[in-house]
Each structure stands twice: as C-alpha cells, then as structure tokens.
Amino acid sequence: MKEEPSEFYNYERQLETLGMGLRDRVTRLIAVKGVRRIGKSSLVRVGFKLHNVKVHAVFDARSVPVVTSESVFEVLSRGLTMLLERAGGLRGLIASLLSRVEGVSVGGVRVEVTPGRPRVLVEVVEALGRVAAEAGEPVVLFFDEAQDFAAVPGFARMLAHIYDYVDGVKIVLAGSEVGLLDRLLGRRDPKAPLYGRPILEIVMERLPPERARGFLERGFSELGLEWPGSYIEEAVESLDGIPGWLTAYGYYSYITRSHPEALRRVVREASLLARDELESFLSARRQARHRYLTILRCLSSRPMSWSELKRCVEAGLGRRLNNSQYTRYLHELQDYSFIEKTGEGLYRLADPLLRHAVAGLH
Ligand SMILES: Nc1ncnc2c1ncn2[C@@H]1O[C@H](COP(=O)(O)OP(=O)(O)O)[C@@H](O)[C@H]1O
Ligand SMILES: [Mg+2]
Fold first, then answer.
1. Of the residues 3, 12, 42, which should be mutated to test ligand 1's pocket, given the most ligand atoms within 8 Å of the CB?
2. Which residue has its alpha carbon closest to ligand 1 atom 5?
3. Nearest-CA residue for atom 26 of ligand 1
4. CA of 39 to the centre of ligand 1 (A)
5. What's residue 334's pLDDT?
6. Does 322 reside within a domain?
7. What does the pLDDT read at residue 1?
8. Is 247 within a domain?
9. pLDDT in tens, 190-208
10. How many domains does the chain have?
11. Is residue 220 located within the same domain as residue 347?
12. Which of 46, 91, 119, 225 is the most buried (most CB within 10 A)?
C-alpha cells in the first residue's frame, strides 16, 4: 500500500476530489469504489497525507479474517491505536476523551476496545466528535473494504448517526464489492439507514493502455532497469490497467530479471486471489454453483450482451433458464464485482485474470 504522495501515480482527479471532500464543511461521507488492487486504500492514505488530515483512523476489514460482531472490536482497537500514534500534539486530548468511554482503555498509545458493549462504537465516535470540536480539526474515519462491516449489526445505522449528528467527524468508505457497498449506502432501499443522504462518490477506473505503459516505464526507470518495450506491451495487455498488478509485475521483473517469469508470477498470484474470492462466493451458493460458473466461463471468451450471454449459458447448461432467475444471477455477480457492464451495455469479467481462476474450477 502506498502512503507517500510522491509514489502515487495518476488518479490526479480522484485525489483532488478526495481533497475537496476532506476539506470542505459540507461533505459528510465519501465513498471510493473500484475493483480490488486498483489503488483505493492507497488513494485514501495518500489523500490523508497530501491534504494534511492529522486525525484519522483506518478501520481495515481485511486486518481480520472475517468481520463479525466479535472481531470488529479488534479492528476498532487497531484503528484507534494508529489514530493515537499519529495524533502528535493532540494525543493527550484524544487519550483522555477516549478513556472516558466505558469499555475503552488507553495505555500509552495502545487503545483497547473490549467486546460486549455494542454502544461503545457510537460513544467512541461521539468522543471523537468532541476531539474535533475542541481541537478545531476534522476527524476522519476510514472504513476500508467497508461492505464487510455490513455483517456487524447496526453498522449502517451508526454511519447514519455520525452523518446526521456528529459534526466534525467525516466518514470515508472504500469497497471492492461495489454492489454490496451500494447496498450499505442504501442506494436503492428507502428503508436503509443512509438512504437519501448526499454522498461524494469517487470511482477508480483502470488506467487506459497509454497510462499503464507510462506507469510501468516510470517504475522501471526508477528501478534502473532497462526493459524492452515489447515486454511492457505484453504486460499492459495482460494486466488490464490495474495498478496493483502492474506494480507486482514491476517488482517481480526486478527480482527475477525475467519477463515471462514475472508475468507468470503476477498472473498466478492474481488468479489465486480471484479463485479464493470466487470460491467463497460459490460456497454460499452451492445450488447455483454450476450456473454461476457457466456464466463466468461464457464471459471468459469475450464480453457479451444480455441475450447473447443467456444463449451461451443455456447452451453450456443444456437447458433453458427463466429470465428472472438469470437476471438475479447477473445482479449477484455484479454486486460482488465479478462481472460488470461496459459503457456499451455488454457484460464482461471485472478482472481479466478471473478467467484463469474460472478455468480451474468445476
Ligand atoms: N496510483 C498508484 N501509484 C502507484 N502505486 C499504486 C497506485 N495504486 C496502487 N498502487 C500499488 O498497488 C497496490 C494495490 O493498491 P491498493 O491501494 O492496496 O488497492 P485496493 O485498495 O484498491 O485493493 C499497492 O501495493 C500499491 O503499491
Ligand atoms: Mg484496499
């Protein structure tokens, strides 16, 4: 993960929008969306540095195996500990306000939130609201892979509470599973706690080929490595403009000094990650496993329209699918960002490396 503005390339517009949202008084909630490894976590961390957000906490869902109503306290403890470590001159004030919350103990810079009191979360946030008021500094809470926190009862309600009542505390959410993030934000559901509240959305798109090429060239020149254009070309083509994979390719090229080996390693790493995510999605949908895999297999060959894809899937399954069921499968796959719709309305795999994962699953 990048934190240094000087090591973060491209996405100038997103960084600027984020900066505006962090500084102005009206923005309450910022949502950063994009496929995994595109640079969401880096963008937000770089943004904190660049825009000098002194008091911020990162609550990273991926810092525990799964976020549950138990493990969330561990995530909280870590995030608050980091906040305190970096708070500079405000450390004393923050420590004293936090330690007044029942269930929170502060020892040195270590903050420990004891499980068991669901209200502790809201009270911590309110304490941070007082920090913001007394210090005259905004406090920003960053929930990374925020859709995973939806498993914690009352999480969306707590966000709405901060939004409405805790002045001075801003929220940033980032998420790779875009449909699930939208659900948390209450985009489509009037009964959802956050429904109807203005949100600043920042979308991270893949780098277009010429930018991806520039990204690699710059990386190689920093590493002092002469790398043939044809290698770079092939990497750009296979890694589809995703900075995380481009970075990994650069790194493996540097340590192995071999283009095919570097590319092989990135592709393997990416497909393993994709396969894990796909397996965990499928294991919760055993009945429809074969149907989901058939959809993904069809899209592995090329992007397709709704009806073309339906024909391909039916051919693969050897039977008809009813429209509403088929549409539901597509929505699920979109919610979890396995597939996405292109500007032309075609469905495609959200990550080209998912193809390798799909090929290995039955
Ligand atoms: N714009 C960028 N410039 C340089 N490196 C980047 C950029 N975006 C991402 N990276 C690199 O790619 C990796 C993945 O980025 P990360 O922020 O973790 O992605 P995400 O949170 O979207 O999954 C990081 O290790 C980081 O080093
Ligand atoms: Mg991330």
1. 42
2. 8
3. 1
4. 4
5. 93
6. yes
7. 81
8. yes
9. 899 999 899 999 999 999 9
10. 3
11. no
12. 46
